[in-house]
Amino acid sequence: MLDTRRQALSSASRLLGRELTLLDEFTAGQHATTLLATDGEDELVVRAFPAHDDAALREAEVLARLTRLGTWVPHLVAAGTTTVEPVIITSRVPGRVPGTELSPSMMATEMAAALARIHELDGDGLRPIPATPPTGDSAIARRAQQEWGDLDRDDPVLLHTDFWCGNALWEGERLTGVVDWSGAGCGPRGVDLAWCRQDLALLGSPEAADVFLREYERILGRPINDIAAWDVQAAARAHDRVETWLPNYLGIGRTEITADVLRERLDEWNARL
After folding, report:
1. Separation of first and last alpha carbons in the chain
2. What is the value of pTM for the model shown?
3. Which range, of 19-23, 82-86, 234-238, averages the lowest pLDDT?
4. What is the CATH number of the domain that holds 247?
5. Chain-wide mean pLDDT for the chain?
6. Same-domain pairing of 166 and 137
7. 46 and 118 co-located in one domain
8. Residue-wise DSSP of 231-246
9. Residue 1 has pLDDT above 60, yes or no
């Protein structure tokens, strides 16, 4: 891990043209090595991805579309132009991971308001999401595959695609920002809604998932009539890998969660669908 951090700082320093010093490491994610660093004046966030991964390039493209969100989102400082050493440097968004004292219902209300703002943005030209049906042979995967052709893809918006509590930053009970935009795309708003609902269920609160949906619908001014179909799609994509998400939850301090707990909560959520 030390070598990974050192390599990320070295790549970022070369890209920026000045030396960066490590301040901290963010652990709520596995896709990238994410560091807080300083150049002696400003605090910056460095995200280094595996070699030949185009995530840094994709995130740089998306960040240019998010300026309407102001300090809620990172602002691009520099990004590598190749995938040999994929790294992106951004401003730091205020806040921290959600505290364990934050109730899921409060979290749901704040995240619904944030997602409503995100979905006001134009995603035209970004990669289409979802591009293919879920894979797998589980009962929920087969159901999602059968329903794939019936999904309503009208009214596409800019999607985050990994909108869960660990990609939101908080100051007390107030959401202050949303990070990790490398997977953003364009598609139906139900993609983000279902993913966040599932996360709230994995935190142990299906009730908060319903609070989240009601608040989003209140802000939008109309119901999301196909949310059940998107819940099935999200569940199918989680079924074969939910245990692998444990480091993400431990990274935001949810030490009460285990791989078995994640599986049990997902199965309980799926039984509702």
Report:
1. 40
2. 0.94
3. 82-86
4. 3.90.1200.10
5. 94
6. yes
7. no
8. HHHHHHHHHTTGGGGH
9. no
